Amino acid sequence: MERARRMVGDAERIVVLTGAGVSAESGVPTFRGAGGLWKSRRPEELATPGAFARDPQLVWEWYASRRAFVSDCAPNEAHFALARLALGHGGTTLVTQNVDGLHHRAAAAVAGEDGDPAQAYPLEVHGALHRDLCSRCGRRTPGVSVVDATSMESLPRCEECEGMLRPDVVWFGEALDPEVIGAAFEAARRADLCLVVGTSAVVYPAASVPEITLQAGGAIVEVNPESTPLTSLAALSLKGPAGELVPGIVPEA
Ligand code: BV8
Ligand code: ZN
Prior knowledge:
Oligomer: single chain
Order of helices and strands: HEHHHHEHEEEEHEHEEH
Number of helices: 9
Bound molecules: ligand BV8, zinc ion
């Protein structure tokens, strides 16, 4: 822990990559962990354009239940500590694979009335669960809070063009927003430290972020109760839950 705290304190530029594990202690089930919200549904089958084209009701039913579930969850100590790091340490870029919006809520809470939370807003490389995207005209709007997926007619439609709305997330087989992933890769190239929190590091291209930092001469510190493909590449791998470990390695604001 002490060594990790020193590495974070000494780093000029830090890129943080988070995955579903950073939200686990907020009650948001991970993708590949046991049980939870996903029950028997496999994300790789449901989170795809094909599934949406075949059965938009089933896909919306899944996303509507996740949207409702996540809005009742709160950021945990790991989100707050990472927001403090980003607000207090100018050279920090947060990158998240999560779509739950909990980093944004932590940034707003830590920044308070007079602070500017934007510095702690993450690059959301897989989009945002609470935003809708029109599948026809591409218009983005705040997510419809209650989605009625009981019939094709009741699915949410675009006010502009009547096209069918979808959650504004990146599905498997879909390209990431080049601006967003480009900014994440640029931050990874310039970072001398990549702090990886709560990701199984199997989903690409997001999982390339730590590899880019390493190739550019930086170091990786990982926080995860399990080993991952990054563990052998990490200068330090802290085996434990993010909510407990991350506050201890982020300098006090
Ligand atoms: C792309 C949004 C190309 C949706 C997500 C074969 C067929 C098709 C595609 C592919 C293929 N093989 C490879 C691919 C590419 C594919 C991919 O990488 N697949 C993987 C599964 C092999 N990638 C893509 O398809 C990407 N697009 O490649 O496009 C292209 C290019 C140009 C033009 C057209 C196309 C798009 C990927 C994005 C998919 N969308 N999410 C939604 O959320 O519904 S991915 C999804 O997985 C989430 O975003 C999630 O964040 C992400 C990664 O998972 P993790 O975050 O790591 O979560 P996981 O559950 O896996 O792990 C949790 C970790 O936390 C564990 O390690 C656990 O130990 C740890 N943990 C648990 N508790 C704690 C903890 N850690 C700390 N504290 C705790 N308390
Ligand atoms: Zn539209």
